[in-house]
TrEMBL record:
Transmembrane domains' residue ranges: 12-36
Protein species of origin: Bacillus oleivorans
Compartment annotation: Cell surface
InterPro entries: N_methyl_site, Pilin-like
Keyword Zinc-finger applies: no
Pfam families (UniProt xref): N_methyl
Annotated GO biological process: establishment of competence for transformation
Protein name: Prepilin-type N-terminal cleavage/methylation domain-containing protein
Keywords, ordered alphabetically: Competence, Membrane, Transmembrane, Transmembrane helix
Signal peptide (UniProt feature, chain positions): none
Gene Ontology cellular component terms for the protein in this record: cell surface
């Protein structure tokens, strides 16, 4: 007599395809999560870079205002790269990978308060920009009298 041995320990093709499909879905969700996190990190890093650059430029302008009383900001293409460079009293203070907009471009006296508006934009991603606005109070030299 012939005996048939049944071995039911293996996987069917349908079970194997189902496991592969579920594994693919899980991997896709994990990859999407990490990709979203990496994009958010890059955007945050760029915004911090723009903020730091705007603070650096604004600090240089504030120091020039309070120490010298006047300054001129030129925004011309000094090095021939096709973008405007910010030059403060003859010294280039701009970064070559960023685009700047400043108002006003010239202050002739620190006797009157002035509003400075600076916008810094990333050249690689023009949608990323930061604008700083500050008021510089007037500096008036008054004689101090001792009673």
């Amino acid at each position: 007599m012939r005996t048939i041995i049944k071995n039911e320990k293996g996987l069917t093709l349908i079970e194997l395809l189902g496991a592969i499909a579920i594994f693919g879905i899980v991997i896709t969700v994990i990859f999407s999560f990490f990709s979203f996190g990496a994009n958010g990190y890059q955007k945050g890093e760029m915004m911090v870079r723009l903020q730091n650059e705007a603070n650096r430029i604004m600090t240089a302008l504030t120091v020039a205002y309070y120490s010298e009383g006047n300054f001129t900001v030129e925004s011309g293409d000094e090095n021939g790269d096709g973008r405007a460079d910010i030059t403060l009293n003859g010294a280039v203070i701009s970064d070559t990978t960023l685009l700047y907009s400043l108002s006003p471009e010239e202050i002739t006296s620190n006797d009157e308060p002035v509003e400075l508006v600076l916008t810094v934009t990333d050249l690689m991603n023009p949608a990323e920009a930061i604008t700083l606005k500050t008021y510089l109070r007037s500096v008036r030299n008054h004689a101090i009298s001792n009673p």
